[in-house]
Amino acid sequence: MADTAVLADAPADHGDAHGEHHSSTGLSNNKLAMWLFLGSECLLFGGLISTYMLYRGRHSENLGPDQLWDIPFTSASSFVLLMSSLTMVLAVSSAHRRNLRNAKIWLAVTATLGSLFVAGQVYEFTTFYREGLGFTTSLFSSSFYTLTGFHGVHVTVGIIMLLSLVAMLSKQRVHGDKAETVEMVGLYWHFVDVVWILIFTLVYLIPA
Amino acid sequence: MSTETVDHTTEAGHAEHDEHADHGWSDGKYIQLAVILAVITGLEVYASYADWLGPAFIPSLIIMMVVKFVAVVMFFMHLKFDNKIFSWLFYAGLFLAVGVYVALLVTFQFFNR
Amino acid sequence: MAIIERPTETLVPATATPAYVTPDSGLGVFRRPVQSEGWKSWLFTVDHKKLGIMYGVTAMAFFVIGGIEAMLIRAQLAGPDGTILSADKYNQMFTMHATTMVFLFVMPMAAAFANYMVPLQVGARDVAFPRINAFGFWAFLFGGIFINTSWILGGAADGGWFMYAPNSSVTFSPTNGIDFWVLGLLITGIASQTGAINLIVTALNMRAPGMSLMRMPIFTWMILVVQFLLVFAIPVITVALVLLMFQRQFDATFFSVEFGADPLLWQHLFWIFGHPEVYILVLPAFGIVSEVLPVFSKKPLFGYPFVVFSGAAIGFVGWGVWAHHMFASGLGPVSVAVFSVATMAIAVPTGVKIINWTLTMWGGKLRFTTAMLFSVGLIIQFTIGGLSGVTHSVAPSDTQQTDTYYIVAHFHYVLFGGAILGIFSGLYYWWPKVFGKLLNETLGKGNFWLMIIGMNLTFGPMHIIGLQGQPRRMYRWTEARAGEGFFNLGFWNLVSSIGTLILAIGVLLFFINVWVSHRKGTVASPLDPWDARSLEWLTSNPPKEHNFDRLPTVHALDEVFHRKYEDVGTDGHHEYKQVATTEELLAIEEANADAHIHMPSPSYWPIVLAFSLPILAYGVIYNLVLMVVGAAILVLGMYGWALEPSTAPETDFDQSPPSGGSELEVASHG
Amino acid sequence: MTFHERTNVQTSEPMTSVASVSSDQISRSRRPVLALGAVIGAGVVASSCAAQAPQDTWSPAGENAQMIHNLQWPIFAVAGIVGLIVFAAVGYAVWKFRDRGQPIPEQTHGKPALEIALTILPAVILAVIAVPTVSTIFALADTTDTECVVNVTGQQWWWEYDYPIADDGSICGFMPTAGNASPIITSGQMVLPVGTKVLVRGTSRDVIHSYWIPRLNGKKDMVPGRVHYLRLETDTPGIYAGQCTEFCGLSHANMRMEVIALERADFQKWLDNELKPYQAPETAAAKAGETVFIQQCARCHQINGLVDPINGELVVSAPDQFVWSGAAPNLTNLMMRNTFAGATWDLLSPQCRARVWEAAPEEFGERFLEGVTPECLNTVDLREWLRNSPAKKPMYADAEMLEVTDGKTRGMPYLALSEDQIDLLIAYLLERK
Ligand code: HEA
Ligand code: HEA
Ligand code: CUA
Ligand SMILES: [Cu+2]
After folding, report:
1. pLDDT of residue C254
2. 3-state class of C366 per DSSP?
3. Which residues pair with D220 in a beta bridge?
4. I want to staple A176 with a disulfide (CB 3.0 to 4.6 A). Which of A117, B11, C308, D285 is the partner?
């Protein structure tokens, strides 16, 4: 845990700035909270990934990763998710330029790409299920579905957040700094993407 | 927690925000980075089919993964431009996770008897 | 309360009742409630002080429950072949005793102190996210009640507090007890997680002007370390609990040995959380002691930076020692050796604390109030527990000790002798701050001595019982293995059970004391009864709703002491003269009150959102319909929360308050 | 019961060292310490004058436990001394610096040099402790010198022992005299030759259990799906008590075990006895008992060589169809053990028990090998067991709990035997030795 260092660093950062600023560090509370949350999510996904890594080889003869993976398909959906990170960053950058119209468009595009990814995952799950890989079939299947399912739920929550944000921006329902709100959702979204970067390599590309 | 982000867009810390935006990149650069990331992804997929990598296969995959990870975090997530405290908070969790879970897997994989 | 709006021009005396402004309803779907009195003011409050009190009261109630469970355990074990509890009930009893004490008493009690004191100590008007704060409390309360409803719904969890797989699978524990346990801990985990993020942001970002991190009160420091531990440890147990939930509810295979599962996975995940958890339990108490000792020694904390960094070091090293709970589980010698040595290392930063506390008293002017007695008691009792901890860290001897009463002795000395004594010290120390009344010192001393004698009689003999080979978690023990002579295991078990009675009377005295101080003699506390040193004493008792009239500017560690006393000694010789009383200091603050003070409005949504969680959980256990209902409340709550009007329509306008202005904009939206 | 008196009580010396710590502490420190000192002091004094309990962790009786002991007592002493220093310092400060109206002391914030010194000192102490710790860990993990292997399997709530046949036909390093070696399967009490380096290979059939004979070695968890190793070696013949120490459900408290250490010659006798062919019942009652057994018990319990007189076929039990763990104790030589059902109850009557348990090491083997004679049988507990075992030992045998285990019990079910049937069964079982 690097908190020692964080905290030791901090005083230098805000120095004598007290009084003028709203906060000790001059940073946004929300953003601090978000990064902390993302830091903690590392331990959540780390645990799920470790469980998968431990159990990836424990399955019946013909229902393991090597038999099931469809790399071209997964690559395509990974690509889609990666591109959604680009559109997300464009949304944030529009929002910072106070161009809410563009920001909303990019947010919507991001949500669409995200939905495409989730649709891909649903398709993948159904295919695997048809091939006989139920949730309870083996250690591999339980841990695979749990890991990717958790990620899928994160993406879905992200999509809901993106769409809600678009609606709220349209209806003027976002209190406070709109650009920051977009940025917050953006951080979450990128994190989900980053987790998939790990999953794509560790789960799909590295053979069992 | 995730829902919090929607609404916790408080009135706080806004003054700094516009500054932060300046630290970011132009849209063009973001697109460039995205292209690079796409290319690396392509390479990863290629690597998983290529036989000639031999023992370098897994390390090369891991390296590409890390590069992608870092690129997104640093640039798309602005960590490189933002206050160091954010980096500390996030990397604390990240490195802790890597350290602890690698140790866990190691106890299972090796010294296990 | 809603907003304290004070026009800049007309200077209203700070003591006057603030005007409540009804929030604008045009902005949102629902108005925010404005009640500042009556039960609604508690249900919908987002005030960190009210929430702190609510945490405290609830935690105390769970302490009594956990204590009664402990007394039943000791009653059963007082003699051989106990028959008070059946094997089944006994197993539920110790599982729930530990769960209650750890998750529903010590952790929330720490949250109570942290909630109440951290904003006051850093000179803020509330925490960073008041609504999340309220949500955290309700999630904890509902989670705690949820777990305990298992008692009447077919039996509580019976797998022990670390719930080793595969004994926790449906096959081996077919009742719903473990489902309640899993889901309940997930809910309280959410509470801890949100609370932790909130407090970290508060401590990092909402400190009063001039309060650098190295001027931050030590209690806040320890709380900060604890919250970091929580932020990173809770996700790990969450993973473990989710796996177990899927195992039990959806027949997942994670712990099914017949599928090739490795039961050690659970142990690793649990203890990666579990070891940091024990420091989560004790560090807040360390923080309290580090506040109390300087005050009653009339000296600053000796080696403040050392204490700060050792706290952080404990937090750090605490992540690398989890497998010391698994020395007998077949890890293999290399892992065992590594973890054994790492565990020893943790005694070093803990020792730093013990040493610095002793040196704080050294050369001081010690006043033995009840708070001080508890703190000194902690030093002694915790050291005993810590030293037995060191004997566990020696892995080969731990294989003789693990899962015996010697371990039970260790962790009660560190938990009761550490966390609980610290908590009681804090209760006596901060009681006047929170309630404006002093607790009775005579009763307090009785309370202390009975607890000390009681705990040593209860847990002291467990060292012997354990080293003589009595395993823990046995619903009965037998004369046949008790040994010969009068002072055999039977004798010591009896002593231990009698000790529990004394302990219970000691705790009871505390409740009597509270009752006496609030009902009978209403001893109004002076503003600064202990001649204290830190910022929370720079406001009235109990503090005003907005904490400080003027946000204090901090010049030194122990700010309040330095405002009260001046060093008038000459060259090398020190002599301290009182230059101001706390009353005078407060009057200055009041006279210079800040102009605009925005306080966050109460909100309906934290409790609604939290309420959805147990409903969802019952749904997971019993049926889908309930789950749908829970999910609906959840969604409703989230949108209500998101769309709720911010405090007032003009929030955006107040971007830059007058200089010296309030931080409340920062605080206003949880 | 006092079998422990047979042993050299090495404990007294480290115990007294702790005792001196606490008496010292009383004299020097003040109030909070007093109560505590009294407790610890009294505790230590008392426990050193009390006879050691059978599972005392401070009375090693074999090489491995001795290694641990040599490591642990100095560490307890170090801990005691450190504790003493802390109590003394606190006690002194409490007494010396109490408020006597002295002026406000200097507001000193610390002395870094002192701080650093006092941080390094514990680190050094611990570094010194770490060295023997690590070497002992590896010494205890060494399995290269094994002379005898026993497979141990835990299940709810008893231990099964299985003595495998080595490639050369030996069992536990001993050649069966009669020649026809077959694996020996027993439960509850593990019989070992004295002075032999035994390696336990352990696992479990259901949940995690832990194998622990305190006077022989530390404990080792027995985990389903994994095989763990534990070294055991005994110095003297006798009975060494143990207890399952990983919480394993309902009857965790009733899951005990014993190691029976026999002189090598006695062990050979025991081994040969185990391998002898089936002893047909002699008395009429026993004959009738055999029939009851075949009807009621044989589906779960194996008795090696038992032949069904009706069809002349070997009776083979199938506990896996009835018991969740898939095993029930092998009763072939039940009366060669002197405890039953997870070593929780005696098979020997109270009068006869002492004869074996308190025997001097020289005569122990002989007395143990007598087994349980009809006069010495503890009929009370055995009858209660046969009448209604789940009532005696909590087990999951009631119908409503069986759904999740496919109708299989965990433990032995209630069998609704009549008193007559029990008489006959006991007559039959009495000859199983
Ligand atoms: C508040 C909680 C708390 C705290 C602070 C600690 C502190 C420590 N614990 Fe404890 N521990 C528990 C709570 C805690 N523990 C619990 C609940 C369990 C059991 C869980 C279960 O199984 O149910 C447990 C179990 C446990 C085990 C596993 C035992 C087993 O099951 O086999 C071990 C093994 O190493 C251990 C070690 C330690 C050590 C080395 C410390 C150290 O941090 C102690 C350091 C302190 C000191 C050493 C004293 C002061 C120092 C000095 C005066 C300096 C000089 C000292 C020396 C030179 C030695 N603990
Ligand atoms: C913070 C944590 C904490 C605290 C405070 C306690 C407090 C106590 N514990 Fe705790 N205990 C644990 C944490 C804690 N315990 C844990 C983690 C375990 C391991 C569980 C497991 O193995 O899974 C455990 C296990 C455990 C066991 C071992 C059970 C077993 O292994 O079989 C025992 C046995 O004596 C015990 C006893 C006690 C006693 C007597 C108290 C006393 O201190 C309680 C004192 C409090 C009261 C008595 C209540 C207040 C009194 C009144 C309000 C008076 C009025 C009421 C009446 C008189 C009825 N505990
Ligand atoms: Cu088997 Cu406990
Ligand atoms: Cu620990």
Report:
1. 96
2. strand
3. D211
4. B11
